[in-house]
Amino acid sequence: MKVLSRWAVLIGLAVPIAAGADDSPQPPLLFEDVLESVSAHDPRIRKAVERLREAEGNTTAARGAFDPRLEGDVGLLTGSYYDLRQADAELRQPTTLWGTEIYAGYRIGRGINQRWPTYRDNQTLSGGEVRAGIEVPIWRGGLIDEDRAKRTRALELQEAASEGLSSAALNLELAAAGAYWKWVSAGEKLEVARSLLDLAQQRDAQLRGRLAAGSIAEFDVTDNERILLERRAYVVAAQRGFEQASFELSLFMRDDAGHSIVPTAERLPEELVQSQSFEVREDQVMDRVLACHPDVARARAELRATQVDVKLTRNQLGPELDGLFEYSRDLGELTGTEQDNTLPGNVFKAGVQLSMPLIFRDERGRASAARAKVAASTAEVQFIEDTLRARVRDSGSAVRAADERVRLTGDVVDTAAELAEGERRRFDVGSSNLIFVNLREQQAAMARVRLIDAIAVSEIERTRWDTTTRVQCGATP
Predict the structure, then answer these.
(1) In a 10 Å sphere around its CB, with 0-12 CB exposed, 13-18 middle and 19+ buried, how is residue 425 labelled?
(2) What is the pLDDT of residues 375-403, one digit of tens each?
(3) Where are the domains of the chain?
(4) Number of helices and strands (H, E) in the chain?
(5) Rounded to two decimals, what is the model's pTM?
(6) The domain made up of 3-61+148-304+372-469 is a member of CATH 1.20.1600.10
(7) CB atoms within 10 A of CB 280
(8) Which of the ends of the chain has fewer CB neighbours closer than 10 A, N or C?
(9) Cβ proximity of 14 and 8 under 8 Å
(10) What residues pair up with 271 in beta bridges, in sequence order?
């Protein structure tokens, strides 16, 4: 395990980074803290959650097409020779079984003058008429209709929104890892820059003392002043890099009210630690990733939603042929009119109704558009699968390369630090000059910077592997 101590000596005395304006002590900011903040307060997560709620609302609305409906009317027909008082109420229940709709109703129709018939179809006996029936689409609307298609489509899009939420969480975790480790590495680089500057400042005091003693020329003091200026500029650049990284990390750090928080230097971890290494096996996770990753699961749900439209438009190319069966019976006593003799008894009604366009241009056009949409969605699914294959392979390769880079760079850091220390000792005894000391110190500092970058990249690549392969079929990652 490679460790970069925040207070370890780079090539001499290390200088701690200045704390922020808040004097109250704060615990070190860990990556887990960033993830917790993202999960609880990030507006991009809230956006995905609201999209899921929108999809759930659309599903509820689509299911509303199968709610029972109560219909009724009351009226008075007057102004002609035969008047009628009538009322009608009917309860209808659409079903998902072959588009069948069942209904039951009651009506009553009585003439104002009870001695005379009204000669109207909606006249009943004194107790009114009860009826029940069933309507069945025989051709169009049998296998699928608009309401069932809308419900199925809404369910698929709800699943797509759910997978989109999971995908957003994984993508934000990877983005947060990039911002967090950039912030940590920027803090470590600022420490390196300040350590280099501190060495030059200490040497400046030593050189001026030796100049006063007459053991060195003024040229060496001037040269060290040049080194001081260069290293001060390096500190300024490193400070700017740390501030920029802090601002980027603030996009993932928020308080309970959702306001972004700019992390201060005092919250930097005391150690930059490379996580424990693990074995990367692409062949063991590939099938599961291709089957269950939320990116491809979302695309497949959207594909199934478009396939519903193809099924619907194909069904609508047929004629509208509906079957009807109804039973009715009048109740109550005879009213004494001549029409009463036609009302009592059981009445059965059966029939079919046909309606169809002659050219089907609307239906054929929508069917063609639906097939094109399915083809586009199919191509998108294939591309996402190919992307996931490449991502798994690339991520595995990146993790192995990053680990090897950390190992090799760590050896370089040890060697460069030893050389820099040896060159300083030679300079102290007069066996070296300032040029070689400065060069060795810069080499040691750059080796340290490369190790910081290597560890940060290693952590980011491990997170990329984790967010790519940490999927479970039928469950939110």
Answers:
(1) exposed
(2) 999 999 999 999 999 999 999 999 999 99
(3) 3-61+148-304+372-469, 100-140+320-355
(4) 8, 8
(5) 0.82
(6) yes
(7) 19
(8) N
(9) yes
(10) 5
